[in-house]
């Protein structure tokens, strides 16, 4: 047994890429040929328990070079830290990383550096939950409101949400939490599926997968739109015919349009009763989203997967620009900043339907929604986590979907850990999945 307190002794990074563009999985109007990728980080300690913290930023290909380099820049802050102290207060590390005066110039709190910080912080939270022997959602749900409050950076938020407001929300969230935890363990958390709707799929595949989604228990599916209006009308008609009137169909433009085009295109799809239009325009255009929302109602407006930090989420809510908030586990500054986003959403009464898919985003974000249900908003009404059935087999504790619901994870941690053999096979460009390319072969 170690005589001194365990410390962080290694920060290993990996450039992991999956050749998803070969099947057009993940294709949309702005991203026709993504290779789903993870800039992956592993925090090792010298503790006898052998536990390590795993985290990652999701990218879709060549950007992974930059993302891994950004995580590498944070290594000096981590090496030598006391593991117990780090896990007891991830916010202290968050303040240090966000506050690096030279790296901060690249943001602040946005883009590649911020995603790197998010990957590292999520790895810390994975380690913290493993050391506590509980899944992350349970660690958060059982935490004292005052401690959760200490994990949130309220800078730039207090005109909309004060620490006192947040404390009140967290205390109220504790009421009835045990009953909701029992429901969660029994039933799971509602999911919707994007798998039928990738833009690269033909109508036959779309209809077949849409019917399958309903048979599998999903109450909502999502279609990518925005490349060709006539195609979208035909595809939405096909999907509506496949699923019938009782199933929600969301549509997702992935930032394709200017505001007037977003309004016109969404209205053209209205006869097929789309539930929400997602990312109709630039993720930075708060007032643009508000304008689209005013003009396409009652179709809802959703965004968030590219919202870079809590400040933009605050403004989207202040401006009445969104009906549905789609936080992403790996876009902002980790669990700490997503706690702020969940508190903002609860304060404004806007439902959170997280973005997921990619590599491991489903695995991560389920923990945030489950915490929100058990101990913050206290409801799953009009709330669903996105589900995409790709790449889960590469994770040690993959998500488990049952009858259209995410099953509550029971394994300690954040479900972020890739299988060692999957890491080895997908390291770019030397892993087996990529070495074939070099020889002119495909998988
Ligand atoms: Mg989307």
TrEMBL record:
A single BP term in Gene Ontology: carbohydrate catabolic process
Example GO molecular function: L-fuconate dehydratase activity
Keywords: Lyase, Magnesium, Metal-binding
Lyase recorded as keyword: yes
Catalyzed reactions: L-fuconate = 2-dehydro-3-deoxy-L-fuconate + H2O
Domain of life, per lineage: Bacteria
Domain Mandelate racemase/muconate lactonizing enzyme C-terminal intervals: 203-299
EC number from the UniProt entry: 4.2.1.68
Needed co-factor(s): Mg(2+)
Pfam families: MR_MLE_C, MR_MLE_N
Protein name: L-fuconate dehydratase
Species the sequence originates in: Streptomyces murinus
């Amino acid at each position: 047994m170690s005589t001194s307190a365990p410390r962080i002794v290694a920060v290993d990074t990996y450039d992991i890429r999956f050749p998803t563009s070969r099947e057009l999985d993940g294709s949309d109007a702005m991203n026709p040929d993504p290779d789903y990728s993870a800039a992956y980080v592993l925090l090792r300690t010298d503790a006898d328990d052998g536990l390590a913290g795993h985290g990652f930023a999701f990218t879709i290909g060549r950007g992974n070079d930059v993302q891994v380099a950004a995580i590498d820049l944070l290594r000096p802050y981590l090496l030598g830290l006391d593991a117990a102290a780090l896990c007891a207060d991830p916010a202290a590390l968050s303040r240090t990383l966000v506050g690096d005066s030279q790296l901060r110039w690249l943001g602040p709190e946005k883009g590649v550096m911020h995603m790197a910080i998010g990957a590292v912080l999520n790895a810390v939270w994975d380690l913290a939950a493993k050391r506590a022997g509980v899944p992350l959602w349970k660690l958060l749900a059982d935490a004292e409101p005052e401690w959760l409050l200490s994990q949130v950076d309220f800078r730039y938020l207090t005109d909309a949400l004060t620490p006192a407001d947040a404390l009140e929300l967290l205390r109220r969230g504790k009421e009835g939490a045990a009953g909701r935890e029992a429901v969660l363990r029994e039933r799971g958390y509602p999911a919707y599926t994007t798998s039928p709707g990738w833009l690269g799929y033909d109508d036959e595949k779309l209809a077949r997968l849409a019917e399958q989604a309903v048979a599998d228990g999903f109450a909502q599916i999502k279609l990518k739109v925005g490349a060709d209006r006539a195609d979208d009308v035909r595809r939405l008609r096909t999907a509506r015919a496949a699923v019938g009137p009782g199933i929600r169909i969301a549509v997702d433009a992935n930032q394709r349009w200017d505001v007037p085009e977003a309004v016109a295109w969404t209205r053209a799809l209205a006869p097929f009763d789309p539930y929400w239009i997602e990312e109709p325009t630039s993720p930075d255009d708060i007032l643009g989203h508000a304008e689209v929302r005013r003009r396409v109602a009652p179709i809802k407006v959703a965004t968030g997967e590219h919202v870079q930090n809590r400040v933009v989420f605050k403004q989207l809510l202040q401006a009445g620009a969104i009906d549905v908030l789609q936080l992403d586990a790996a876009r902002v500054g980790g669990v700490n900043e997503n706690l702020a986003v969940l508190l903002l959403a609860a304060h404004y009464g806007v439902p959170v339907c997280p973005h997921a898919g990619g590599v491991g985003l489903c695995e991560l974000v389920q923990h945030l929604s489950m915490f929100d249900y058990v101990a913050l908003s206290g409801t799953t009404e009009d709330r669903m986590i996105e589900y995409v059935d790709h790449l889960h087999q590469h994770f040690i504790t993959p998500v488990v979907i049952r009858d259209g619901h995410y099953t509550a994870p029971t394994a300690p941690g954040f479900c972020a850990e890739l299988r060692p053999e999957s890491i080895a096979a997908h390291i770019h460009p030397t892993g087996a999945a990529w070495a074939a390319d070099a020889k002119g072969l495909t998988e």
